[in-house]
Write a structure and sequence with these properties.
five-stranded antiparallel beta sheet; 72% helix; 574 residues
Length: 574
């Protein structure tokens, strides 16, 4: 009986597409604004939106800092079966986001010097001022958007994430059309459309989280700033990544203007807008796995972590390939859509080649962030998103004979090489110490090597359950458990799994199991997907049917059920 990746693969893919769609929502909003503005105001309007983007990225970076840090900590606490602490981190993140949103909204009234800086003395100053003025006034919904998305994922509410994104995108499209064509408000109307659509989406997301039965319902008593330091520390890679994007965009805008002039800046505006679409891959793939990795890492389930990492890489390869092929095939329509005077084939090819390298590096970075290696994650992030792109572009500016847009794939590839070198060195050094770490993921897997844990999967049928019961008995016997307790545990687990298969409201395919025999305790962890179902709550309903579960509850020293990420988790300790 082996560990089957079908359970994790199914759970990951179920999470992936709502998360990708939610990222697509913010990206599509920016794309919709760019398209409408380019149609109404031409390349000056499009360039103004691109030059204003650092402000939006700063707002996103702060929102992501707080929400991602809070949700990662909540996921880790959920992995330790500490839901109360997970909920407290949720409320702390909401408090911090609200305070930051109000402060940035007040800054809108003093943003004229900022627009002067972004315009760099060009004629785009007024366009930029209007766009960032409205964006700063709407700072709170832009920052708050991340909280419901991350916590809906943690709560296993995937359909709600999709609906939230659909509301934002559809409403932004409608408002853009109304405020740019019917009531021509120009670039101000486009900014208002983004703020209002994001606000309505936030309201819907929080309403879903606040429904009866949700772990993450808002309670006024829990608001506060407890855990702020931990939230900032765990959220720093995501937040700093957005901040680095803002700084990088500011510097690259200036470099491209100097190297390639206005025509080069126009091509860069198009590439930058399309690169936002690649975020559904670059950010979506690792973000969909981050809470699951947090839960598994807190529970020391290394096998599951490795399976998740492998799934992410495979998905990244195929999605990057599809994304690049679509861009190349649609280069003609894209030239028409963005009113580009130049052929975009080669620039789009360069952009396409950078996507796969970027997503692999991001998967690594997000994993290290989730596993608590914050410094390593931050270092990889700053090199990939700031240092390498600027350094390579600067060198290309010196060597004018080189093709300018190649700086995108080359800088992305350098980040992979650097990460591999760092991980190899850390793993090699650890082998001379007390805790040798595995390559690639730097996991402490001494329990697996000593056969103190056993990870395996059980198909949702009676025959497989009987086989699993025998496997548990063999494992317990190999770890010198009392024969009487071995028999009781095997029989009770067999009945528990049978009840879950028969009574669960969902169509179970497989159940993931972990048996562990540590110095302080021996037990079993059971994970399965579907609706919330705790068999220990129904023991009194039918004593005969639940007899085995009742016996297990009396025999065990600890029994706990939790529901996180759309997964039922039962822990039984002897």
């Amino acid at each position: 009986m082996n560990y089957d990746d079908s359970f994790l693969r199914r759970q990951y893919l179920i999470n992936l597409f709502p998360i990708m769609f939610s990222i697509l929502g913010g990206t599509v909003n920016a794309l919709i604004d760019s398209v409408f503005i380019s149609l109404v105001l031409g390349k000056d309007g499009l360039s103004a939106v691109t030059l204003s983007m650092p402000v939006y990225l700063v707002l996103c970076s702060i929102g992501a800092l707080i929400a991602s840090g809070g949700s990662l900590l909540s996921a880790r606490e959920a992995g330790k079966e500490n839901i109360q602490s997970a909920v407290r981190y949720y409320h702390s993140s909401l408090t911090l986001t609200f305070i930051c949103g109000i402060l940035f909204s007040a800054f809108a009234f003093f943003c004229r010097p900022l627009s002067d800086l972004l315009a760099q003395g060009s004629a785009l100053n007024e366009y930029i001022y209007r766009y960032i003025y409205v964006s700063l006034l709407g700072a709170l919904p832009f920052m708050m958007l991340y909280s419901p998305v991350f916590y809906l994922q943690l709560a296993g509410k995937r359909k709600e994430i999709t609906m939230m994104t659909f509301i934002m995108v559809s409403l932004d499209t409608i408002l853009d059309a109304v405020l740019l064509f019917i009531y021509p408000m120009g670039i101000t109307g486009a900014a208002i459309a983004s703020v209002v659509s994001t606000l309505i989406a936030c309201i819907y997301g929080f309403a879903c989280l606040n429904r009866k039965g949700s772990d993450y319902r808002i309670s006024l008593k829990l608001f506060g700033v407890k855990g702020t330091g931990s939230i900032i520390r765990f959220g720093s890679p995501t937040a700093l990544g957005n901040f680095y994007d803002a700084v990088r965009l500011l510097i690259i805008n200036a470099l491209i203007l100097k190297i390639a002039g206005v025509s080069g800046a126009a091509v860069w505006a198009i590439l930058n807008t399309l690169s936002e679409l690649s975020l559904i891959i670059v950010s979506g793939i690792p973000q969909a796995a981050a809470p699951m990795t947090g839960v598994y890492y807190a529970a020391h389930e290394n096998t599951g972590i490795r399976v998740l990492f492998k799934i992410e890489i495979v998905v990244a390869f195929f999605m990057s390939l599809i994304f690049g092929a679509v861009l190349i095939l649609l280069h003609g329509p894209l030239e028409i859509l963005f009113n580009s005077p130049e052929d975009l084939t080669l620039p789009l090819l360069a952009l396409s080649l950078s996507v796969l390298a970027n997503v692999i590096s991001t998967i690594w970075s997000v994993y290290f962030n989730t596993s608590g290696r914050i410094g390593l994650s931050n270092f990889i992030t700053v090199m990939r998103r700031l240092i390498f792109p600027i350094a390579v572009l600067f060198l290309y500016g010196i060597r004018r004979e080189l093709y300018l847009w190649n700086f995108l794939p080359i800088s992305a590839l350098l980040s992979i090489v650097l990460t591999w070198m760092i991980v190899t060195v850390i793993s090699a050094k650890s082998r001379s110490g007390k805790v040798p770490l595995s390559g690639m993921l730097l996991l402490d897997d001494h329990l697996e090597r000593e056969n103190k844990v056993l990870d395996y999967s059980v198909a949702a049928d009676i025959e497989s359950v009987c086989d699993a019961s025998e496997r548990i008995k063999e494992f317990c016997q190999a770890n010198n458990m009392d024969k009487k307790n071995i028999y009781k545990m095997g029989l009770a687990i067999e009945e528990l799994l049978t009840v879950m298969i028969q009574k669960s409201n969902s169509d179970l395919k497989t159940i993931d199991m972990r048996s562990f025999a540590l110095e302080e305790t021996t037990g079993v962890r059971i994970r399965c997907a579907g609706e919330r179902y705790n068999p220990f709550e129904h023991v009194d309903e039918d004593e005969d049917f639940y007899m085995g579960i009742s016996m297990l509850e009396k025999t065990a020293t600890y029994v706990h059920h939790s529901y996180t990420l759309g997964m039922n988790t039962i822990i039984i300790l002897l």
